[in-house]
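Practice problem 4.
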């Protein structure tokens, strides 16, 4: 199922992206402010998703496994929920799916500071120096993310 996605992800990763470091304000589901720059020094997997999106739900265990394996070392996953949903409902969803990586809320959008969001899920890779280096539209896997990071070392 993900074999075709892997080829697409690898192709998209090779595309040139903006070389400038990205600064992006974030707000968690409790209303606390953060910034993408808080994660400098690590790879940041920024995943745009929604609770109504089946492919988003399918990839969540993969994102969680990647985050669990890397958060203490070299990479983190942050989820950005792109829908108008109450904090309690979103919190319950995350608990039901055992999601512990940081999740931030945003209004529905087709573009962010990182680039276009043509569909969900859309995942951006941000380098440890804060540069957007890749985008994948469609689900990703832990293996895809790990292969990409290995290819950049």
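Answer key:
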């Amino acid at each position: 199922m993900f074999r075709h996605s892997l080829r697409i992800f690898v192709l998209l990763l090779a595309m040139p992206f903006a070389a400038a470091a990205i600064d992006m304000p974030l707000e968690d589901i409790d209303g606390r402010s953060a910034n993408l720059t808080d994660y400098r020094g690590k790879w940041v997997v920024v995943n745009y998703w929604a609770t109504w999106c089946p492919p988003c739900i399918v990839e969540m265990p993969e994102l969680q496994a990647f985050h669990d394996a890397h958060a203490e070392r070299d990479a983190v996953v942050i989820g950005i929920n792109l829908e108008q949903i109450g904090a309690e409902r979103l919190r319950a969803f995350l608990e039901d799916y055992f999601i512990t990586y940081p999740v931030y809320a945003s209004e529905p959008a087709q573009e962010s500071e990182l680039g276009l969001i043509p569909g969900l899920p859309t995942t951006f890779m941000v380098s440890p120096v804060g540069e957007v280096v890749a985008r994948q539209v469609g689900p990703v896997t832990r293996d895809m993310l790990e292969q990409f990071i290995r290819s950049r070392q």
